Amino acid sequence: MTTLINGNFKSKDILSLDQFSPKDIEKVLKLSRKMKVIATKARPSKILEGNIVALIFYEPSSRTFGSFSASVKQLGGQTVEIINPKEFSSVNKGESFEDTIRVFESYCDAIVLRHPQIGTAKAASEAAFFVPIINAGDGAGDHPTQTLQDLLTIYEKFGKLDNLTGVMAGDVLNSRTIHSLLQGLSIFKNNTIYLLSSNKLRLAKNDLAKYKKTDIKIIEITKPDDIPSNANFWYWNRVQKERFASTEEYEKAKKIFTITPEFLKKYGNKNMILMDPLPRIGTIDPQIDSDPRAVYLRSQIRNGMYIRMALISLILGKDKKIK
Ligand code: NCD
């Protein structure tokens, strides 16, 4: 059982959204708004002065890595960055995962970890003696910081995280971004999510059963005609090529519905937002980018830095320094 946040983030591992209550999420979002102000200043603040955060990424990443790195620097802290430890650390000589975590925790105040296997962030939290672990994506499992950024993006537009209707599409089975966002929205009242995917890429049965016991209403659909006309947001996700056993399996599954101007006109509405955690591979036609509803290359990206600034300050117990 992971430790619940319960209003107190200090020194806690952040492994999954199931540690959060609505109040905990609201606390991060509220602090993120202050971070937005700090980030627009030309000089870094001194909130994390003297702190070092290690970023250990076993899987490729642009946004998560970049925004974690930038968020620590925005707050005057520093990073130790290990990309691809299999090649560039003693993991290459055969060092165990646990030893690698214990070595790097000696150099830092928190570790941000991305790994291709489900459960590795939890394993790291059990291996670490001293510092908290932040899950930056573990295989098809969880991606809690992406969800905080997505929730902030939704909140900014609608001023609430309850009574919303959303469509999540693409690789529902393997996208950790979808899994964590479902978890995040399930703790707020009366949200309805349509999951649009082929039969092959449907949500796992045990996840569906888990959500039956929560307040979220999940409706599985396989064709765009079943997209509700009143959706507040669309959340499109690429097919997660790296999660398939073979290229052939991926080729068989990779066809998803792309948002084109025609598709948007037919199934969308005026007040919605269009989200994608990116990278977009077959998800959204670039012709959509200039549409004011498209937030994926705008606020959704920037919010990733603000929420990571907020979360790290909370975990390192520096939030009181923020005015
Ligand atoms: C996502 C991820 O890595 O899970 N990317 C990200 O962190 N923004 C989504 C993806 O790779 O499809």
Structure overview:
This protein has helices at 22-40, 63-74, 85-88, 97-105, 120-127, 144-158, 176-186, 205-212, 247-253, 261-267, 299-315; strands at residues 52-57, 78-83, 110-115, 133-138, 165-170, 192-196, 217-221, 233-237, 273-275. Helix 2 (63-74) packs across helix 11 (299-315), helix 6 (144-158) crosses helix 7 (176-186) and helix 6 (144-158) crosses helix 11. It starts with 21 loop residues before the first helix and ends in an 8-residue tail after the last helix. The protein is 36% helix and 15% strand. The chain is α/β, with parallel strands linked by helices and 323 residues long. The structure holds N-carbamoyl-L-aspartate. Residues 63-64, 137, 143, 146, 176-177, 237-238, 240, 277-278 line the site of N-carbamoyl-L-aspartate.
Q: How many domain units?
A: 2
Mean pLDDT: 96
Structural class based on helices, strands and sheet pairing: alpha/beta
CATH class descriptor of the largest domain? Alpha Beta
Ligands (ions, cofactors included): N-carbamoyl-L-aspartate
Q: How large, in whole angstroms, is the Cα Rg? A: 19 Å
- Spatial order of the strands forming the largest sheet: 7-6-5-8-9
Order of helices and strands: HEHEHHEHEHEHEHEEHHEH
Beta strands, count: 9
- Helical amount: 25-40%
**Measured distance between first and last alpha carbons:** 34 Å
CATH topology of the largest domain: Rossmann fold
Show unreliable segments: none
Number of helices: 11
Q: At CATH's second level, what is the architecture of the largest domain?
A: 3-Layer(aba) Sandwich
The 3D shape can be described as globular
Work out the oligomeric state of the chains in this entry.
Answer: single chain
Question: Major sheet: size, sense and barrel closure?
Answer: 5 strands, parallel
